[in-house]
Design goal:
About 35% of the residues lie in helices and about 15% in strands. With about 325 residues, it is an alpha/beta fold. A 9-stranded mixed β-sheet has the order 1-2-4-3-5-6-7-8-9, sandwiched between helices.
């Protein structure tokens, strides 16, 4: 059931479903909470799943100026406080992974299990790939507009011919994003780092990394080792792992959250042309209310291993 809450003048839209321990799902850049539908169906049988739209995204109010990742994390804690949740499991994808990690660092004893999908502990530009990801999209948005930019994003995420339903859906959703929201959230991500604070982390942590993600796999492996986290590498997956590796993502999250063994490495692969796309990928796009700026999408990956004995693809 969709609901709204207000905190410090920020109106936040969220969905709540299922019962049990609280599980918060945080979406990526140019996305919204509805993108978690592929995972929520599997998770709601075991958890009380809370799925917010970040500011500027979905049906939430527009993004405030000069918003930071710490602000977003504090806002989501205010949502959980409003719901009388003192302890939660948190899963974040891409930008949402940064917000999830920041939440766990703001309240180290309040996050039981943490799962980060295609995310890093810092996005400050220290690698040419990060420079490209930070600098090229704003230029293309100004030159082409969000709808054409959305088509480029979708084609990059899902290049295979059989992935055309995914491309169409993602292009339609990202095309609705406000340029201001996209650039504002991307700027917040670039200005954030958690590398010097990782020793504060108390959560049991899982990192899911795509084999072909936009940022180096080696950096995620090093991050997993520093955080004493388990690492799953999804072979064949690109940045949109929750979408192009649905079965692997769901199996890993369920195993991690329910304290079960993670899937074997050979089973951690992206979906193939013989796999049936989930109905959510083929469903019509639901447009955000016209007076609110929609926003954000994230990305993902393939494979499995432990941080201490991480397996390369």
């Amino acid at each position: 059931m969709p609901r709204f809450t207000d905190h410090a003048g920020q109106r936040l839209h969220y969905r709540a479903r299922g019962q049990g321990e609280c599980l918060l799902l945080v979406h990526g850049l140019a996305s919204c909470g509805a993108h978690w539908e592929l995972q929520a169906r599997a998770l709601e049988a075991h958890f009380r799943v809370i799925i917010p739209d970040l500011p500027g995204c979905g049906a939430s109010a527009p993004l405030a100026s000069q918003c930071t990742i710490a602000d977003l994390a504090a806002l989501l804690w205010s949502l959980l406080d409003h719901l009388h949740v003192s302890r939660a499991n948190v899963v974040g994808f891409s930008l949402g992974g940064a917000v999830a990690l920041e939440m766990a660092l703001q309240r180290p004893d309040a996050v039981s299990r943490l799962a980060l999908i295609n995310s890093l502990a810092a996005y400050r530009i220290d690698h040419w790939r990060k420079w490209l990801e930070a600098r090229v999209p704003p230029v293309l948005i100004r030159l082409l507009g969000m709808r054409r930019m959305a088509c480029l994003i979708a084609a990059r995420l899902f290049p295979a011919p059989w992935q055309s339903p995914l491309r169409r859906r993602v292009a339609a959703i990202v095309g609705q994003v406000s340029p201001a929201a996209y650039i504002g959230l991307a700027s917040a991500l670039e200005g954030w780092t958690a590398t010097s604070r990782l020793s504060r982390l108390r959560s049991r942590t899982l990192i899911i990394a795509a084999e072909h993600d936009y940022t180096p796999l080696a950096e995620k492996m090093a991050m997993a080792a520093t955080m004493h986290a388990q690492l799953v590498v999804v072979r064949g997956s690109r940045h949109g792992t929750p979408f192009d590796a649905i079965a692997t993502t769901n199996a890993c999250l369920l195993a991690w959250l329910l304290d079960r063994p993670l899937p074997a490495a050979e089973r951690c692969v992206s979906d193939g042309p013989g796999d049936r796309l989930a109905p959510a990928c083929q469903a019509p796009v639901l447009h955000a209310p016209p007076h609110r700026a929609p926003g954000g999408i994230g990305l993902s990956g393939r494979g499995l291993g432990s941080a201490r004995t991480a397996h390369t693809p």
